[in-house]
Amino acid sequence: xxxxxxxxxxxxxxxxxxxxxxxxxxxxxxxxxxxxxxxxxxxxxxxxxxxxxxxxxxxxxxxxxxxxxxxxxxxxxxxxxxxxxxxxxxxxxxxxxxxxxxxxxxxxxxxxxxxxxxxxxxxxxxxxxxxxxxxxxxxxxxxxxxxxxxxxxxxxxxxxxxxxxxxxxxxxxxxxxxxxxxxxxxxxxxxxxxxxxxxxxxxxxxxxxxxxxxxxxxxxxxxxxxxxxxxxxxxxxxxxxxxxxxxxxxxxxxxxxxxxxxxxxxxxxxxxxxxxxxxxxxxxxxxxxxxxxxxxxxxxxxxxxxxxxxxxxxxxxxxxxxxxxxxxxxxxxxxxxxxxxxxxxxxxxxxxxxxxxxxxxxxxxxxxxxxxxxxxxxxxxxxxxxxxxxxxxxxxxxxxxxxxxxxxxxxxxxxxxxxxxxxxxxxxxxxxxxxxxxxxxxxxxxxxxxxxxxxxxxxxxxxxxxxxxxxxxxxxxxxxxxxxxxxxxxxxxxxxxxxxxxxxxxxxxxxxxxxxxxxxxxxxxxxxxxxxxxxxxxxxxxxxxxxxxxxxxxxxxxxxxxxxxxxxxxxxxxxxxxxxxxxxxxxxxxxxxxxxxxxxxxxxxxxxxxxxxxxxxxxxxxxxxxxxxxxxxxxxxxxxxxxxxxxxxxxxxxxxxxxxxxxxxxxxxxxxxxxxxxxxxxxxxxxxxxxxxxxxxxxxxxxxxxxxxxxxxxxxxxxxxxxx
Length: 724
Prior knowledge:
Layout: H1 10-19, H2 29-42, E1 46-52, E2 56-63, E3 69-71, H3 77-80, E4 87-89, H4 102-105, E5 112-119, E6 125-133, H5 141-187, E7 191-196, E8 207-211, H6 213-219, H7 231-234, H8 237-253, E9 257-265, E10 271-282, E11 288-297, H9 305-319, E12 325-329, E13 335-338, H10 340-346, H11 350-353, H12 364-379, E14 384-391, E15 397-409, E16 412-422, H13 433-445, E17 450-455, E18 460-463, H14 465-471, H15 475-478, H16 483-487, H17 489-503, E19 508-516, E20 519-531, E21 537-546, H18 548-562, H19 572-589, E22 592-600, H20 603-610, H21 612-629, E23 635-640, E24 643-651, H22 654-669, E25 672-674, E26 677-679, E27 683-690, H23 697-713, E28 719-723
Parallel strand pairs: 27-28
Antiparallel strand pairs: 1-2, 1-6, 2-3, 4-5, 5-6, 7-8, 7-11, 9-10, 10-11, 12-13, 12-16, 14-15, 15-16, 17-18, 17-21, 19-20, 20-21, 22-24, 22-27, 23-24, 25-26
Helix pairs in contact: 2-5, 2-18, 20-21, 21-22
C-alpha cells in the first residue's frame, strides 16, 4: 500500500482550512445536496465531501457511508489532493497503490474511486469531492466535467459560509471594541473629555460630549452639568475665556496642545493643579471636528519629582496606547509613519521602519512573498491582507497579521492606512473610532453581497458599494430613504413580514427574487437584529447574496442527472425511479407488468467498422424506433452503452408482452439509412413477465437480463420470455 504524500504547502494549507471553521460542524443541506447530486450523476452508491487535517479525512457530507472520518494515511483523497484535475482509480484491486488498502480489502470495499480536489481561489487544496463504487468502472466525460463543476461549487459554498462567519465575528468585535473603549475611558485614572469643536463654534468653545468619572473628581463638576453644554455654560467667565483661547489656538494650529500646569478652583473652594493635553481629531476633509482632552491631577506630584516622571510616562503611554501596530503609506507604497506598537512588533525604530525599511524586519523565508503581495496590492489599489513573521535582531520571531486599505478621496488615491496585529499573543485593544469606521467601510464595500443597515423607521442608514451597484443608485438616492420608497410597493410587500420578524429580535434568513438591472435575480438574504444593551432592537443589518447562477446550475444538474445526453431517454437513475413507481402501481392495482431488456446485436462491430460517431447515430435512431414501437404509457430508458429497458404496465397476459417484443423486432429490422450508409441492425430482447409482485425492480431487470442471454444464445434477432 502506498501512503499519500503531504503537499509542499501543508502548514499553510492546514492554516487556511482552520480559517474556514468548518471541521466537525453539523451537516448542512447545501453540501448534502451536492453529494446527492454527485452520487446520482455519476451513478455511484457513495459520494463524499472530504476535508483533510493532520491525521484524518473528515466527511462534511456523505451519501452511502456510515463513517464520519477515516485515517488520512489510508485515504484515497490524500492522493487526489495532489492532483490538478480528477484523480480516478478504475479498479482499486488491480492498482498497486491500493490493492491491499484496508478500505479496499474491508468496509466499504472500494473498487472504483474518482475525486475532484477542492481548490480555493488562492490555490490551497482543502479536500475532495469524490464518488465511490463497489464495482470497477470509469467516469464518462460528461460525469467528469459535472464532478469538477460540483467541486468548484463546494469551494464557493465554503467560501460564502466562511465570509458570513467572518462578517458576523467582525461585527461582534467592533461592538465589543466600542464597549471596551467606553468602559476604558470611564475608568481611566486620568480625566478625559471630548468636545465637538468647529471654527463656527469657537466663541462658545464647542459642546462637551464626554466627561469621565476622573474629570468629575478633579474638577468637582458632575458630568450632568457638562455634557451637551459649551464653555460659557460650564465654567465661570474668566475660566471660560481661557478655554475659548485654548480652543482657538488648537483650531489655528491643528496640533496637540499641552498645558503643563493648569489650576482649577473647584466648587468646594479647593484648588487642584492639572496637566492638560488637548488633541485634535479630524474629519474626512482634514478639518478639526473634535478635540480630546486628557487631564492629570498633578497637585501632589509637583512635590515628588519621581512620581511626576512616572505620571508623565503614564500620560505619554495613554497618548500612544494602541495595541495594534499602525502605519501609513504614500501612493507608491512607501511607509511614512509607524507607531510604537509597530516598532515593538518589528524590532525597528521609527526612522528605520520608514520608506521600505520595514522590509528588513520580515523573516527571510517570508520576504519574497510579502514584498510581492504588498507591491501588487499598492500598485493595483487593492486591499492588502497577509500573515507574516517579523524577525528581531535577537532572534525573536513575532507572527503578525498585516492589513492595509487604499484611501480614496473623491476618486483619487491619497495613500494607504493599515494595521499590524500581533497574533502570537493576542492583545486586547481597539483602533480609533474613525479608523474602525474606515476599516469597516472598506471591508463591506469589497464584499460580494449587498449589505445595508435599516433603522426603526425602515429607513436605510448604510449601504455598501455592492448595494449601489445592484440598484444602479448613489448614496444620495439611498441613505435616509424608506425601504418602501426604494424597493417599490410590490417588493416591499414581499419583505415586510421578514422585516417585522427581525425588528422583533429574530434572525431571519430567506430567499426571494428581485429585479436587478432589468433582470430577475435570486437573492439569499439574512436579516440580523441590532440589539441595544437594554434589549431593544435599534435596527437591522441585512446581507444579500446573488445566487442566480447557483439556482441555474442546480436546475441544469437535476436535468442532467435524470436523462441520457445522447438519446434524450431517461438514464439509469431515472429508470430505477420509474420502475419502482411502476411496481407500486402494479401491486396496488393487482395487474401484471413486464420488463424488456434489449441490446443491439453486434454493436461493437458497428463501432469498429463505422466509427463511434456513426455508432452514436445508431443509438439515437434505435432509441427513436424503440419509443415509436411502444405505447405512450410505456416507459423507455437507456441503461448503459447499447442496453435499453422498456417497462410495460397493465399487461394482461404474457402473450401481450410477446406481441410488443415482436413489434419491436420488426421496427428495428426495417432498413436503416444513416448519412448515405445502408445498415442492417437487429436487436435481441429478454422479457421478464411478472404477475406475483414479489420481485424488486433490480430483480426484474436481472430476470430480463437472463432472458436476453438466452435470446442471444439462440441466435440473436429474437426474444425470450421468462415468467416470474
